[in-house]
Amino acid sequence: MKRNAGSPRRVLIVCTANICRSPTAETVLRHRLDGAAVEVESAGLAALPGTPIDPRTEAVLAAHGLSAAGHVARRATPAQIAAADLVLAMEQRHLSALRALVPSARARSFLLGRWQGNADIPDPYGRAQDAYEEAYRMIEAAVEDWRARL
């Protein structure tokens, strides 16, 4: 993929706990950007650092030929948010929290589902397996729309 002038070099994807949605989006985006000079990472606003990826999330990724098995949760920090060229959040409440934490990030913070009508991507944690699969489908579509714009 060719980078456009002014394209982000660092993308941060944020959710709540950094064990389901944001590591999924990180894994899918990194895979789609294969070979591009873009650093992709994820973090959670309320993450318990060191928590492994949710097993149901990993199962859905594996079903699509991907893996985040080595992922451990990280808590989003103001420095990490400030260093990112593009910050993508799963829900409007995450976006609001990010912008409150680092006001200077407002112009480069968006919903991952921006190109799907600013759709929130619901948290599948603790729900049935089909919720994880639906979250994956929504994330995959959103990532593809972002990839086309990076």
UniProtKB/TrEMBL annotation:
> Membrane spanning segments where?
none
The chain positions of domain Phosphotyrosine protein phosphatase I read 9-149
The residues responsible for catalysis, as annotated, are C15, R21, D123
EC main class here is hydrolase
Key words, A-Z:
Hydrolase, Protein phosphatase
Q: SUPFAM superfamilies, per this entry?
A: Phosphotyrosine protein phosphatases I
* Domain of life assignment: Bacteria
Q: Give the EC number(s) listed in the UniProt record.
A: 3.1.3.48
In Pfam terms, one family for this protein is LMWPc
- Care to name a GO molecular-function term for this sequence? protein tyrosine phosphatase activity
What Gene3D superfamilies does the database record attribute to this sequence? 3.40.50.2300
The family assignment reads: Belongs to the low molecular weight phosphotyrosine protein phosphatase family.
What is the official name of this protein in its record?
protein-tyrosine-phosphatase
What is the native source organism of this protein?
Answer: Vulcaniibacterium tengchongense
